Amino acid sequence: MADETLYLKVDAHNLGDFEREGLEPFAYDKGGRVVQMSYYQAPEELFEDRELAAAWARRSFEAALRAQAGKRKTKS
After folding, report:
1. What does DSSP say about strands 25-30 and 33-41: parallel, antiparallel, or unpaired?
2. pTM of the predicted model, to two decimals?
3. 3-state secondary structure the chain
4. Strand partners, 5
5. Domain that holds residue 42
6. Residue 2 counted as domain residue
7. Number of domains in the chain
8. I need a labelling partner for 64 at 20 to 30 A (CA). Which of 10, 22, 36, 42 fits?
């Protein structure tokens, strides 16, 4: 959550879902430079539909697991 906006983890596997919905990435200003994170706005519909929320949350959790697995491989 940032500024009352829910953001979900994104990677190459689920980025298209967010782009199709026209959702924006989380970005912030760092010393005059915009830094974009691997999180995108959650669709508003999630707050009204539990099953939809669970599906989006599951895909984002899977993205987080893939990111974590990738970090472990690079440390080895």
Report:
1. antiparallel
2. 0.84
3. CECCECEEECCCCCHHHHHHCCCCEEEEEECCEEEEEEEEECCHHHHCCHHHHHHHHHHHHHHHHHHHHHHHHHHC
4. 2
5. 7-75
6. no
7. 1
8. 22
Give pLDDT tens digits for 27-48.
999 999 999 999 999 999 999 9
* Residue whose structure tokens are 């539909």: 49
User: How long is the chain?
Assistant: 76
**Does 1 fall in a domain?**
no
Assess if residue 12 is contained within a domain. yes
Closest C-alpha among 24, 44, 28, 45 to residue 36: 28
Neighbours of 7 (CB within 10 A): 19
- pLDDT for residue 58: 97
